[in-house]
């Protein structure tokens, strides 16, 4: 097993490949040109609820995911990388103007320029490995943050607190209803 808990024959996920490139000193030469498709919405929302044979079931299982995908495709765009420039929504950034690239856990990459995030890309997208190579080639700092782990812990704590509150309210209701 490796540091991710994979067996030797298991293929690393795209996010694990990106993290490995970030941790390498020199990941190699990036391609001359590549693009990354960004998507603000999940490409395959998990909206499946089983309520056999109802119109609600059809809506939740087919219509809603279809609408999410359509909205995602309409709002998505491509960022084009070539030699030392990035073209995002018809705005061109030189490699020298990029402040840093941040990897948030194993979720997404942010590119910072001019004091703001100019691009946010899920690590599963094709081209993220090339993005890391491009940034390192142009000596742009590529930072790893543990934002994903902290948010996961926060979610667990919030869920536990919610369950405790629900249990306390249910106990109070039961106590006073059978008194």
Characteristics of this structure?
about 180 residues; four-stranded mixed beta sheet; 4 helices; about 40% helix
Q: Profile the largest sheet.
A: 4 strands, antiparallel
Question: Percent of residues in helical segments?
Answer: 40-55%
Tell me the number of strands: 8
What order do the helices and strands follow?
A: HEHEEEEEEHEH
Using only C-alpha atoms, the radius of gyration works out to 22 Å
Q: What is the CA-CA span between the terminal residues?
A: 57 Å
Percent in strands: 15-25%
Which strand order do you get reading across the main beta sheet?
A: 1-2-3-4
Structural class: alpha+beta
What is the overall shape? elongated
Low-pLDDT runs: 41-53
Report the total helices: 4
Mean pLDDT: 76
Overview in brief:
By secondary structure, the chain is α+β, with helices and mostly antiparallel strands.
Protein architecture, described:
The structure is a single chain. The protein has four helices and eight strands. The chain has a four-stranded antiparallel beta sheet. A four-stranded mixed beta sheet has the order 7-6-5-8, with helices on one face. Strand 2 and strand 3 form a beta hairpin. The radius of gyration is 22 Å and the shape is elongated. About 7% of the residues have low confidence.
């Amino acid at each position: 097993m490796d540091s991710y808990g994979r067996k030797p024959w298991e293929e690393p996920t795209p996010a694990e490949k990106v993290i490995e490139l970030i941790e390498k000193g020199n990941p190699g030469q990036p391609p001359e040109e590549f693009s990354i498709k960004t998507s603000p919405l999940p490409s395959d929302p998990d909206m499946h609820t089983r309520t056999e044979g109802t119109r609600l079931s059809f809506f939740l299982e087919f219509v809603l995911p279809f609408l999410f995908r359509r909205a995602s495709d309409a709002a998505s765009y491509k960022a084009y990388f070539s030699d030392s420039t990035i073209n995002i929504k018809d705005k061109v950034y030189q490699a020298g103007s990029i402040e840093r690239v941040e990897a948030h856990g194993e979720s997404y990459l942010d590119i910072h320029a001019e004091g703001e995030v100019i691009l946010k890309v899920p690590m599963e997208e094709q081209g993220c490995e090339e993005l890391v190579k491009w940034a390192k080639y142009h000596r742009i700092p590529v930072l790893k943050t543990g934002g994903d782990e902290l948010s996961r812990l926060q979610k667990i704590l919030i869920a536990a607190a919610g369950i405790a509150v629900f249990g306390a309210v249910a106990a109070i209701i039961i106590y006073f209803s059978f008194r």
